[in-house]
Amino acid sequence: MNSEKPIAILFVCMGNICRSPAAECLMRSLLEEKQLEKLFTIDSAGTGNWHAGNKPDRRMRKAAKLAGKTIEGSARQVQESDFSEFDWIFCMDNDNYANLISMGANPEKTHLLLEFVSHQTITEVPDPYYGGSDGFTNVINLIDGAVCDLIDHLISTTT
Fold first, then answer.
1. Domain definitions of the chain by residue range
2. Backbone angles phi, psi at 56, to 5 degrees
3. 136: helix, coil or strand?
4. CB atoms < 10 A from the CB of 33, how many?
5. In Å, what is the CA distance from 135 to each residue of 51, 63, 139?
């Protein structure tokens, strides 16, 4: 792995208040746990701007807290500069993938997050926003496992 420049990763969902900040914070926490945080730069954004400046959804923060995790940050919209700044862009679902590609994202470095989780039968991280608390808990568990597999994948392919 190139130790000169950290691998820059952007997680993207629709509004940047549920899934993508969860992925950002869960991956950052796991990287710190594994003492790999210096190898990566992590951020998140949304394809939409209606939540810009807001904290992550309180229900997502609560689900994370129940799992012993912390989710924090401030929502922002994807910017054109993100497409050159980040080495990898991981989307939560096909709609956000299509939005990013139409905005100019490079398809070679833009992927669905769950592409790298071999044991999953689903391909998209479901949006829990309009559902109950179980949906947020499910998303936390799904993303936590996905970022663990993603770290292993990135470490093995860049060393």
1. 7-158
2. -60, 150
3. helix
4. 10
5. 20, 9, 6
Task: Encode pLDDT of 10-53 as tens digits.
Answer: 999 999 999 999 999 999 999 999 999 999 999 999 999 999 99
Q: Any idea what the Cα angle at residue 86 is, between residues 144 and 81, rounded to 5°?
A: 130
DSSP 60-108: HHHHHHHTT--------B--TTHHHH-SEEEESSHHHHHHHHHHT--TT
Q: Which residues contact 37 (CB under 8 A, 6 or more apart)?
A: 28, 31
pTM score above 0.85: yes
Residues whose CB is less than 8 angstroms from the CB of residue 66 and which lie 6 or more positions away in sequence, other chains included: 137
Catalytic residues: 13, 19, 127
Pick among 3.40.50.2300, 3.40.50.450, 3.90.700.10, 3.40.50.2000: CATH of 7-158: 3.40.50.2300
Q: Which of 132, 113, 111, 136 is nearest to 124 (CA)?
A: 113
Q: What is the pLDDT of residues 88-120, one digit of tens each?
A: 999 999 999 999 999 999 999 999 999 987 777
Name every residue whose Cβ is closer than 8 Å to that of residue 89 and which is 6 or more positions away in sequence: 9, 10, 11, 12, 82, 83, 100, 105, 109, 110, 111
